[in-house]
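== Protein entry: sequence and backbone fold ==
=== Local backbone shapes as whole numbers ===
==== Amino acids and backbone structure tokens ====
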Amino acid sequence: MAKYSSITDIAKALGLSPSTVSRALNDHYSISGKTKERVWNYAKETGFQKNLNAANLLHGKSKVIGVLVPEATSHFFATLISGTRNGLAGSGYDLIILESNESYEQEVRNLRYLCSMRVDGILYAPSVATTDFSHLDLVQKNKIPFVNIDREVQGFHCCKVLLDDGYGARLAVEHLIQRGARRIAHLAGPKEVTNAAQRLQAYKDVLQEHHIPFDSALVAFSDFRMPSSAPAISRLFDQKPEAIFCVNDETALGCMAEARKRKLKVPDDVLVVGFDDEIYSQYFNPGLTTVHSPIDQMAQMAVKKCLRLIQDFDAVVVERMVLQPELIIRKSSLRKKN
């Protein structure tokens, strides 16, 4: 267990009162230069560090914002965290980043921990497994500035910064139809996750608008990740689709791998479109057509809203801010029309 040197330790060693040591460390005018020098030298020798958490809480602020996300290894959430950090630059606030690892139980523990740390604000994206949001009552009871990002918590009154997932999916499916595809499969995300559900609904809506019958055999569900989505991808390929719209770029990469395994060519034999425009998608062979998510902008907007809530909680209007994605067309969907 770590044993940090404290103001009390310095006071005992130097025969001073703790209040004198505290004022000396803060360069208070009432303390002589000789005493300050003694205190500073001893503090340096013993590796003394101010307890910023205690000092900040004394003034009613922790100067820390908590970020609770499902995971931090994917490009999407890593970029979201990086954008949050950039948005806080120069604000005087630090970050605590916690991952739920897509576990409801871990998410509940993490949220309680952030509350116990008296963080000044929380940015939050729920796990795949979270369907009961009663643990968020703790946030409301303590009036903690709170911003819901990416995966929407429906029915919870708070500021939200989201992506128009339905519009993004519509762009993808419309594009595949324009390229001549009719038998279009969808590798969907978990049914319980709002943004995945919105993408699935948009897929169905666009098919209906173009008088293409919906076939449930052309829909398979994934957990957003590879290789766990491989069985679902294999089932879709068994249906011999002309095109596949994937819930994200990671599973789109899995579809391209399955095509190669079956000696099919992308885009000659099957078109593939992803979602998110992760950094590596342009380097696929062929390059992946995908829906670009403005992740950094989402993070920056969430930070600004959180800081405004911290500054004046009651004066900030609760908003649901929705960002527009765009379609990035690359070779994976550019087979010549029939």
Observations:
- The chain has three domains: 7-50, 61-164+295-323, 165-293+327-333.
